[in-house]
Automatic annotation (TrEMBL):
Its main location: cytoplasm. The keyword Transferase applies. One of its GO terms (cellular component) is cytoplasm. This is Adenosylmethionine-8-amino-7-oxononanoate aminotransferase. Keywords: Amino-acid biosynthesis, Aminotransferase, Arginine biosynthesis, Biotin biosynthesis, Cytoplasm, Pyridoxal phosphate, S-adenosyl-L-methionine, Transferase. Its cofactor is pyridoxal 5'-phosphate. Catalyzes the transfer of the alpha-amino group from S-adenosyl-L-methionine (SAM) to 7-keto-8-aminopelargonic acid (KAPA) to form 7,8-diaminopelargonic acid (DAPA). It is the only aminotransferase known to utilize SAM as an amino donor.
Length: 423
């Protein structure tokens, strides 16, 4: 096989030996993608969890077009520009009051890398260099760079890269009726005195299988961190921008993180951008005439003006339109449709948090590498539905412009998939 000729593009999280053909997409609008051959495909996963208000939202498209003709890019070290300034101001207006400084990057993974470096830099610069331990939650996922893999679940995703990763301490996922074990485990490790930070996906662990836990547990975990002076990092890359029902997941628990990571929906899903927000104490620990205390992190496209303009347009939609009401309506629709799966014995652990719904198809081989995963993906593609199961876990996370009829079609297909592939 001449792989260079057959697969010139190497696609992400794709085993080309199993999926040799990609679906060519020509355009998009609202909750739909249009393939090159004219098929309208419902985007049931918001194109990897990024699209919020809908594809090609006119206000965001106009902002991108206008900004592209004015200022496309400028080095952000030693310079600034209006879209970044306006975006930072608006972010500080809608995010927890504890957060006072905005650091720009370009993806969810890098926003988490920034958070980890901020935490370690804080302790180093305040004379506590022995605080280096990072605590994580079992089944977590925070990205695919070396640092973010290190703080994520170890397994098939990263086994080949194990020599590059640093050690972390893990606490168990808060399972129903056993959340106290998670809180107790965090309490125990924090008493060691060497913990720099605890990083967690609030309320929903995405790539780990859409695992969900209640807000009160998140609040308890934050209280433990406060009691032991451990920095609390909220990875809201996926859970932010309305997915869990509130603008940010931490709001549902009344939690104000020390450091927070936001990406994906920050531009409404139009362009790559990320931010890491932190408390003033963390910025102040790096603020010094001693240049060795500089926060040494950058990317070439930090605070790209066009991406920032898209994010400003997104924030204006949030501030000027009834987005929360749309999210509540979508969550209600999800709740009505997922209720029909409760009595289907082919599915297990049917669950919902805000606009996210998930269920596990009962099969003999479960888990991310379950053979049923590619079969389910192809099954839904044949029905013009973009659903990308996590192994035998099916989930629906659509844009906020989704209608009840759209969801009816999705859940009818899921029920049919259960009859076809379930055991």
């Amino acid at each position: 096989m001449n792989s260079k000729r057959q697969f010139p593009i190497w696609h992400p999280f794709t085993q080309h030996a199993v999926m040799p053909e990609m679906t060519p997409i020509a355009q998009s609008e609202g909750a739909f993608l249009t393939s090159k051959d004219g098929r309208r495909i419902f985007d049931g996963i918001s194109s990897w969890w990024v699209v919020t208000h809908g594809h090609c939202h006119p206000r965001i498209v106009d902002a991108i077009s206008e900004q592209a003709g004015r200022l496309d890019q400028v080095i952000f070290a030693g310079h600034t520009h209006e879209p970044a300034e306006e975006l930072a101001e608006k972010l500080l207006h809608v995010t927890p009051a504890s957060l006072s400084h905005v650091f720009f990057s370009d993806s969810g993974s890098t926003s988490v890398e920034v958070a980890l470096k901020m935490a370690l830099g804080y302790w180093q610069n305040t004379g506590n260099a022995d605080r280096t331990r990072i605590v994580v939650m079992e089944n977590g996922y925070h990205g695919d760079t070396i640092g973010t893999m290190s703080v994520g679940e170890r397994g098939v995703f990263n086994a080949a890269y194990e020599p590059l990763m640093f050690d972390v301490t893990s606490v168990p996922f808060p399972r129903p009726n056993d959340a106290d074990a998670t809180v107790a485990a965090l309490e125990l490790v924090c008493t060691r005195g060497d913990v720099a930070a605890f990083i967690v996906e609030p309320l929903v662990l995405g790539a780990g299988g859409m695992l969900m836990y209640p807000p009160e547990v998140l609040a308890q975990l934050k209280a433990v961190c406060e009691a032991h002076d451990v920095l609390f990092i909220a990875d809201e890359v996926m859970t932010g921008w309305g997915r869990t029902g509130s603008m940010f997941a931490c709001q549902k628990a009344g939690v104000e993180p020390d450091i927070a990571c936001y990406s994906k929906g920050i531009t409404g899903g139009s362009l790559p951008l990320a931010v890491t927000l932190c408390r003033s104490e963390i910025f102040d620990a790096h603020y010094s005439k001693d240049r060795s205390k500089t926060f040494f992190h950058s990317s070439s496209y930090t605070a790209n003006p066009i991406a920032c303009a898209a994010a400003v347009a997104n924030l204006k939609i949030w501030l000027e339109e009834p987005v929360i009401e749309r999210i509540a309506d979508l969550a209600d629709m999800q709740n009505r449709h997922i209720a029909q799966m409760m009595d289907d014995d082919r599915f297990d652990n049917v669950r919902q948090c805000g606009t996210i719904a998930a269920m596990d198809l009962k099969v003999r081989d479960d888990g991310y590498l379950s053979d049923v995963g590619p079969k389910l993906y192809a099954f839904f593609q044949e029905r013009n539905l973009l659903l990308r199961p996590l192994g035998n876990t099916l989930y629906v996370m659509p844009p906020y412009c989704t209608t009840d009829d759209n969801l009816a079609e999705v859940y009818n297909a899921i029920a049919e998939a259960g009859r076809t592939f379930g055991s």
